[in-house]
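Run: sequence + iron/sulfur cluster -> complex structure.
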Amino acid sequence: TAFVSIMRGCNNMCSFCVVPFTRGRERSRDAASIIKECTDLFNDGFREVTLLGQNVDSYQWMDPQNHTIISFAKLMEMVALISPDLRVRFSTSHPKDITDDVLFTMKKYDNICKYIHLPVQSGSTRILQMMNRTYTREWYIAKVDRIREILPGCGLSTDSITGFCSETEEDHQQTLSLFEYCEYDLAYMYFYSERPGTLAERRFEDDVPEEVKKRRLQEIVALHRIHSLKSMQRELGTIAKVLIEGDSKKSKEHWQGRSDHNKVVVFPKTGNLKKGDYADVFIESCTAGTLIGKCK
Ligand code: SF4
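>> structure
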């Protein structure tokens, strides 16, 4: 598996973030050079590429030959067409920018993984405005609904920041209820920690006491644990297409890989399978972080 950077910098100005100051304005990379890099990786034996950018949905490149704009959806399609044996993932999407075009392109190609990382940060529209995220709670929920309509069963993950400046119990409850609605498969949850040089540092007071931030974070983590276990249990009895990444961490007698939905799958070694092969694995049991099965 490999990571391929498709753009640098970011044009958004989320008030908690240093990226706009440290990495500068958004610049998209030449599409032809991305396709060449992905093709070379495939020819060298790589079987999965993750297209990386701070905000991949705003990728844009002017094709110099026919003067057409290559959008992120188009770029993803071009990468998917390199080979059906090359898996394509991407990160990160911004809720204000992800388009139906991207979702329909994901649907069209089996080798584009059905998994989207869609950072929400907060479930409160008031806090989202202070964070300068440029979407509301309702907008975010509508995006999640659209993803589930076009791509039923698509894996969904998020980032959240608890205890941002002036966050009240009511704002926090809004985040909990949004987590309840979205039932994320995976979440990266943090409490707010002021970063020097950010807009938030200049504009707002970091006024939520640390013990309150930590307690709220624990509540979100506890809720998410229930959802992530449910998400693993939903896979029981299904067949996952797993890209073998190597030996399982616990046993050399088992392979470890990832499913289309980005879940870790472990199964006993059989036949002539090797690292980089795909295996259809029947999922028999699970822990909170791993699916366990056997080769079909
Ligand atoms: Fe850009 Fe992400 Fe930072 Fe917002 S949080 S400014 S989208 S890099």
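>> summary
The two ends are 23 Å apart (CA to CA). The CA atoms of residues 216 and 222 lie 10 Å apart.
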